[in-house]
Every structure is written in structure tokens, then in C-alpha cells.
Design goal:
Blueprint (H helix, E strand, L loop, with lengths): L12 E3 L6 E3 L23 H21 L3 E5 L2 E5 L1 H8 L5 H30 L6 H14 L5 H12 L1 E2 L3 E5 L1 H19 L4 H13 L1
Antiparallel strand pairs: 1-2, 3-4, 3-6, 5-6
Helix pairs in contact: 1-3, 1-6, 2-3, 3-4, 3-6
Amino acid sequence: MSTTAASARSLGCAGCEVCGLVVRLPVPAGAAFCPRCGERLHSRLPASLERTWALTIAALLLYIPANLLPVMTTNTPLGAVSDTIMQGVVELWSPTSWPLAVVVFVASVTIPLGKLIALAYLLLTVQRGSVRSNGQRVRLYRLLKFIGRWSMLDVFVDTFVVALIQLQPLMWVEPGAGVLYFAAVVVVTMVAVNSFDPRLIWDLPQQEKHAHG
């Protein structure tokens, strides 16, 4: 006798992605909308893996020029100096401002790359039908959604610096092309995280349990 708990999908229900209300889907399957907030309901997001893969690869391609192109140009009567993200981290590294250098490095280099690696890990494990560490993978997905809002720190820092340091004709600062690519990486990665359906993590384990129950 199987003791496997029934899933919402096996009962013909779906949870609203906006308000969390669990609603029974129509039979035969058709368009269904949440009676509470009006959001369209899906048992699983259509083409979730394909869209997430496409967005993850696009973000990875944008990540390269975001780190290679200058994010800020400082103009003085002696000339102009352009700095990439890593050059800015190196210049900030000093006995008094090294904490800021660490924050910029983590927020601008480590977190975006880590999010892309984590997304690729989730996609690969789902596609390969992994049944291990499901709880950890769900927590990883929730962490990705949580830290997404902090990924624009470098863009905010550059914006404030550009707004504050405008001492023409002695000195003025201009944003570089790298800022646009970095902002694009952040936005595309956030969209990729939202396009991934975490319920896919549990589908194969449920099928395995029913098959052996």
C-alpha cells in the first residue's frame, strides 16, 4: 500500500503564482484563471526549461562585455581614465576602503556569476531527472529570488558617483558601456529565475514513488 502524499497536479489542481490560492483546473484542460486575483493558472509553466535556458545563456553572453568594458570614465584636464569593474575593485582596495571593494566585488562579479551557475545546476538536474537533494534545490531557488534585488548595487553606486562628481571643467564622471551590459545581465537573470518553475523539481520524484508504490 502506497503512503505517498498526493500532489496538487495529481488531483487536478494548481496553485496561483501570485496569491497562492489552490484552484481545481477545468476538465478538459483549458484556460483557467484565479478567482481571487485573475492570474492565469498553469499546472506547470509552459516551456519553462526552454525559456530559462535561453535567458541564462543570454545573460552569460552579456556578462562577458559587462566585465570587459569600462563602467565609468573619469574626465580631468589631464585626460580621461576608464575603469572596468575589476579595475574599480583594485583601486578601492586600500586600508580604509577595502570593505567597499569587497562589497562591489561580491555584488558585481560573484553574485551574478553564481546565479548563472546555480540556474544551470537547477536546469541540468531537472532535465536529467535527479531525485536527490530536492529540498536543497528548492531552497537554492528561493535564495536566487531573494538575492536578485541586490544585484543592481554596482549600477546604483555608479549612478550616485556620476551624479555627485560633476565639477566641470575640473572633473566630471560619465557612465561607461559596461553599466548597460551589467544592468542587462541583472534584468535577464531575474527574468530567467522567474521563468523557472520550481515545481518541476518534484515531478520526477513523485513519479518514482508512484511507480514503486
